[in-house]
Amino acid sequence: MAITGPSSFVPTVTEFLAHWGHTNTFLGSDGPLILGDGTAIAILSGYCDSLALFSSSVQGKLNDVEIARGYLDLQKAALIGRLGEFNRKVRGFLSHTAYVTALPEVPPGSSSVATIADSLDDMATLWVKINAATIPGFTGPLSLLDGYLVATFNADLATLKATSTAWQNALQDVKLERERRNDLQDLVQPILRDYRAAIEGTFAPTDPLVASLPRLTPEPGSTPDAVAANGTWEVTPSQTKLTWSASDNLNLSHYSLRFCSGANYSTDDESVIGNVGPSETREFLTNSGLTSPGSTASFKVYVVLTTGNEKGSNTVTITRP
Fold first, then answer.
1. I need a surface site. Which of 136, 141, 152, 277 has the fewest CB within 10 A?
2. Cβ neighbours of 177 (radius 10 Å)
3. Residue from 217, 178, 200, 171 nearest 4 by CA
């Protein structure tokens, strides 16, 4: 492996830890190897464990974003529907009044929550005024389908605003967790660099420990061609089955299976969920990000070369029924 992005840190650091362990064994009583700043293998091992936890926690917080977004979209659609119904009701029964000219516009469902909430706030204000007014030929209070009254609407509007706040908080949580992870990655990368320098400065260039040093960055070389990936939801055993075309690259090391929670794939948030060797069946089963009905996850299959160069496939997005 080599460092190519956040998802490559844990497997790359794991390789360095294994090499460091071999070095300490070789050194015996002359060891263990300690870097110039006092970093020992146990410190790097702890950082690796923390990076693995960050991989899980970032995905968990992305799940929170998707759940909040799902609730928000449902609530937006329902209240926009009520706004349209309210406008029709006023036009139908109060067409002879000035209330018709005060009706708020119905915003598209793709509008921001702030834009939608502004129209809904106007609706709530107008609804209260209509209920309080004396209007010839009309007996209040005004109600919509299924006896839907302004008090229920106000409660639903408050829920929409609370859900929007929860969604914004979830987005902020993801951003903060990502920054904490990035800070740790920035701490780890120089340790790997210094470890390589320590080995090269301790042993002869022909020594096996030098020759077997893990790479920190990919070797110079071309990026491999991407493979074409496909995915289906398998009712039994309640997992997604990923399949992909074969890579004909002679330097193929393995296929790396990665995912992101939600419908938007980001290499900054992807997590490795498995590896498949060149001669193994090109098929992978997983429920990563899809543990509950309605959840959505996105997947890619990476071609990873022995040089550390890699290329991701098309994105496969799956929503669990």
1. 136
2. 18
3. 217
Identify the H or E element spanning 261: strand 252-261
Helix (H, G, I), strand (E, B) or coil at 273: strand
* pLDDT at residue 197, as a whole number: 97
Local confidence band at 304 (pLDDT 50, 70, 90 cut-offs): very high
Separation CA 96–CA 236 (nearest Å): 61
Closest CA to 168 of 105, 106, 117: 117
What pLDDT does residue 79 have? 98
Q: Tell me if 201 sits within 8 A of 35, measured CB to CB.
A: no
Mean pLDDT calculated for residue range 18-27: 98
pLDDT band at 152; cut points 50, 70, 90: very high
- Give the closest residue to 287 by CA, choosing from 277, 297, 276, 300: 297
Cis peptide before 208 (omega within 30 of 0): no
Radius of gyration over every alpha carbon of the chain, rounded to an integer in angstroms: 29
* Rounded Cα distance, 232 and 10, in Å: 28
In terms of residues, how long is the chain? 321
Q: What are 238-256's pLDDT values in tens digits?
A: 999 999 999 999 999 999 9
End-to-end CA distance of the chain: 36
d(Cα 44, Cα 30) in Å, to the nearest integer? 20
Q: Which residues does 311 contact at the CB level (< 8 Å), separation at least 6?
A: 223, 224, 225, 226, 302, 303
Averaged pLDDT, 295-314? 95
Token code pair at residue 104: 């708020």
Q: Dihedral angle at the C-alpha atoms of 242, 248, 253, 257, nearest 10 degrees?
A: -20
Burial (CB count within 10 angstroms: exposed 0-12, middle 13-18, buried 19+), residue 136 = exposed
Show the CA angle centred on residue 27, arms to residues 21 and 29, nearest 5°. 115
Which strand (E) or helix (H) includes residue 243? strand 239-244
Residue type, 22: H
- Write phi, then psi, for 151 (nearest 5 degrees): -65, -40
